[in-house]
């Protein structure tokens, strides 16, 4: 057994990422991100119930660059998880298991996430009078 040492199973060095595996991993990560964001939402509600000073302090953080980036990330996670969840519901109904359909719907999830996130932020800023 003095030959070339090989891994016993596919390893990250030789495994090519596929769209289906990337969407699956991102679905799990966005679910975790949404859970963390939900905890932040609870903090926001507690600050609102605690009084004007607490609420203003949290709102000023939300208006900062870091706060807006966190809110943007949470909205991206929301739309991605929602669209990919709809894709999973279609799979539960038995539709879209074929590889071409899986790649089309995976690409549609990414495009839909970008469009819905952009649309939500444009509408939000429009409602605030920024445009």
Structure characterization notes:
The structure is a single chain. This protein is mainly α. The chain has a single domain, classed as 3 helical TM bundles of succinate and fumarate reductases (Up-down Bundle). It is built from 4 helices and no strands. Helix 1 runs antiparallel to helix 2 and helix 1 packs across helix 3. 10% of the residues are buried. It is a multi-pass membrane protein. It is found in: Membrane. Its cofactor is heme. Keywords: Heme, Iron, Membrane, Metal-binding, Transmembrane, Transmembrane helix. It comes from Dongia sedimenti.
In short:
Membrane-anchoring subunit of succinate dehydrogenase (SDH). The protein has 131 residues and is mainly α.
The profile of the biggest β sheet is: none
Order of helices and strands: HHHH
Strand content: under 5%
- CATH structural class: Mainly Alpha
Low-confidence sequence ranges: none
Structural class: mainly alpha
Radius of gyration: 21 Å
Query: For the terminal residues, how far apart are their CA atoms?
Result: 70 Å
Into how many domains do the coordinates divide? 1
Overall mean confidence score, pLDDT: 92
Number of helical segments? 4
Residues in helices, as a percent range: over 70%
Tally of extended strands? 0
Here the CATH topology equals: 3 helical TM bundles of succinate and fumarate reductases
CATH architecture: Up-down Bundle
Give the overall silhouette. elongated
The CATH superfamily is identified as Fumarate reductase/succinate dehydrogenase, transmembrane subunit
